[in-house]
Amino acid sequence: MGLIDLFSLQQTYDQQRIMLCFNGPLTKSLIEEIGNALRNYMQRENATPSSAMDVFGAYIELTQNIRHYAAAKGWNDAEVSATVVISRDALGRYVVSAGNIVDAADGQALAARVAALAAMDKARLKAEYKEQLRKPRDDGAVTGAGLGLIDMARKAAEPLVCSVQAVGDERAFFSMRVVM
Asked: Dihedral (C-alpha) 98, 34, 69, 177: value to the nearest 10 degrees?
C-alpha cells in the first residue's frame, strides 16, 4: 500500500465538518476513550451542557448497540467493526453517524423501525417512549431498537435517517444519522 494522502483526507474532513472519526473494531474500552475525547472536544467548543449530553448520549447509544448486536450474534472482533463519525452540519448542529455490518434481514427490520419513528411527531414519540417504558421486560430477552432509539428520535433536531446497503447475500451495512 502506498502513502495515504492525509492532506486530502484532512481537507475532506474539514469540508464535511468532521470533528471525530473512527473506523475499525469497537471494543468497550475504545468506546469509552472515544467518548472521553468527544466530551473534551465539546468542552473546548463551548457546547451547551444539554447539547453535549445529547451528542454524547447518541454516540453511546449507537456504539453500544453495535457492540451488543455483535455479541448477540457471537461475532468476533473483526465482525464488530464499525464506522463512527461526529460532525457539524451547515447550521452548526451536531451530527452523530454510525454504521456496521448486520444480517440483511435485521438491517431491513431496523430500517423499518427507524422509518416508523421518523414519521412520528414529538408528541407521538413521547407517547411511544412512555408505552415502551411500561412494557414488561423478559430477563433473557435480547433488546434492541427500543427505548434508546426512541429517546434519540425524541431528542433529535430532525427525523432519524438510516440506510441499508447489501454486502453479499446475507449481510448488509446499516448506517444511521442523528442530528442533535
From this structure: -20
- Indicate the pTM of the whole model: 0.89
pLDDT digits (tens, 9 = 90+) for 71-124: 999 988 777 789 999 999 999 999 999 999 999 999 999 999 999 999 999 999
Query: Domain residue spans in the chain?
Result: 22-136+145-179
Q: Dig out the grid coordinates for 29 from the structure.
A: 474500552
Query: CA-CA distance, 73 to 54, in Å (whole number)?
Result: 28
CATH classification number, 22-136+145-179, choose in 3.30.565, 2.40.50, 3.40.50, 3.30.1120: 3.30.565
3-state secondary structure of 121: coil
